[in-house]
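Q: What structure does this chain adopt?
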Amino acid sequence: MSQIYVIHENAAWLEPLARALDAEGLAWRDWHLDHGAFDLARAPPAGIFFSRMSASSHTRGHRFAAELTLGVLAWLERSRCRVINGSHALDLEISKARQCSALAAAGIRTPRTVVVAGTDLLAAAMRREFAGGPAILKPNRGGKGLGVRLFRSPEALEDFLASPDYEPPVDGIHLLQQYIEAARPLVTRAEFIGGRFLYAVEVDTSEGFELCPADACAIGDAYCPAGEEPGPKFTIIDAIDGELRQRYEAFLDANRIAVAGIEFIRDRAGVAYTYDVNTNTNYNPDAERRAGRSAMAALARYLGDELAASTRPAAPSR
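A:
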């Protein structure tokens, strides 16, 4: 029987989608790809395949889940399966450097970004490229905002790199990025399903950068400001600038990404800088309850439509 296969490595993040798929009465199965064995000469099972593989999978002990999933997605695509958020989407998910290049190619403004391989080169690069600061340090492959820090001087950066708090990025690559000073400590995350805008979330960043919006980040994840909040850290809005929305939708179409959250910040002059694309997107339940919205329900309906389209007989040729 043809069904929906959800590829992932985090059971906690799957639960809200599982409930939505069940509510729609859809046939589906989860593929937990932290390990496995696949014969590339065999045909894949019948159905459509939706990848929710995360860039932060290594933080849950699934060090090679993304690499395995890239191989599985290539197998599915070669077999002409319907794959939603396929290998190209995952390639961008696990590399912020490649994200920056893809966004720039789509004419989307990003913060100035310097790619650094070698911890010993970071402070010198900050002095040379950012006139001594301030600058944002982030891992090339992160997820959930992990490891994103603001430094106002190369000396502060050097102290951090020498401290027990420093953890090297899993792929050995850092990004030094232009610090965008906003009028308020606020970023916006625009959510897209089927490549089209659904809603946006304004996120209060006054308490830091680790901003996983899920109701249940993985067991043991620290500093996730999701769940019940003393004040609304996440607030849903129904629209973003029309031209920016069009550019985002064109970017997603060009990069074969159907489901994503795209984050941007506005400087004091109101100029938008786009700094992250999340192809394994989660949604905050408290913000959705306040707004009367459900992105997971919309996602389940979209997947159901894609499954139905994949099983529909082809029109006869004339």
